[in-house]
Amino acid sequence: MLIFQYQELDAHFCRLSDMRSICEFGDISQFGILNHLFNKGDDLLYKDIFGFIDMYTPISDFDSYFTAAYQRKIECEISELKIKKIDAQSASIRTTMYDMQISAAEEKLLVESIQDYKDQEENGFESYIDLLVAEYCFWNEGMTEAVAWDHVLKFYLPYKIASVLYDDYTQRMSRNEIFEDRLPVIVKEKYLKNKIDLKAIDKEFSSYNLVSLVDGMEIINAHESQTLTDNRILGWYLYLKVPRDLLSAIEDLLQKEMVNKIAFWINGVAAGVPALEELEIGRYFSFDALALPALSRLYDDENYDDKLWIKVEINENEEKYPHSMTFEEICSDDAQVEGRIITQVIHLEFKKIDNDYFISHLDHEFISYNPEQYNARKVDGSVKGVRQKTFKIDDAKIPFKFKFNDKYFMYILLDCLLQNKKNVNEYFSKILNK
Question: CA-CA distance, 234 to 12, in Å (whole number)?
Fold first, then answer.
């Protein structure tokens, strides 16, 4: 795992983000701050970022670092396209376009090196080059198209590499943001302007910085985003950090009254909607939860650093101390920000009623470790880090065998939230076809 090996590049990207945060709309290129610096010839891009990329491109570790970031980006695009395809099918709309886009994206996953990426980019990139040339001419008055074309071609590869890595940086930073006070303060102040003290009236907000779903609030689960509306702050949207498929399943549980209390981490407030593994120890999941071992660990046979820990606690006094299951994912490419590594955990409590099992509590957390804690956590399931929840369900009665859209809720939960889908599929392999 390349922990903090490229902090210098992150420092450059941090300055890039700072520049973006003080720019007004219209002051930068329509293609974003990176393209704006490209057009203006800024030293931060050409000297610092491009210089770093030129220095490290021949090094195999950096080659692997870039390739992993690129594949994460493409996997995210494929996931989004598949969701759009499903929605199109539901609306009886032809999906040919999405099929073509998914097929093209899946071919990109074959990229295993910067050279592969370069070869891919050089195959039919003229239309994108035309846009970059037009932008370069627009921001450099008097520049001829021929000179602009030569300039864009010269720096095209480092520019594209920088674009992929900057996108990856912003994704890692968004995960780290959950451990800061900025977003809860924004939420608190938005409600205070409407004479509502969330900390005084919402136990979940005062305890975990989560906003409880109460009467007068509505979940908006759209293509573009997942949000809440609240008639106490009319006209504003509260952004959720819950994947769309999982939120759909949660909505179904609420409608069926299998969940009575739920609270969410708010990821932002705005006045509009934005657009083959092996089982190393333990046992695969079964619906007979009491028969599960206390600890299981799955690992990816292609990458031993990718692990899924499953901890099961069975308590004799079930009424006082519910049984529990905890899933924590350790990945070779876990988000690394400012000297810490961020993983995620899913925790649930359950009870046995007659011969069936029901989830009574559920929450999802991000966990931040320092490097020493993280390395210890790889082999020791008891190591603790700093935690922040993204959502929390209480007073629920969700059957283990509950299905939404022909998929078990338990599977949806892990599949939507965890990165390594192979480990998830392996753990549920005994029940997925039932």
Answer: 39
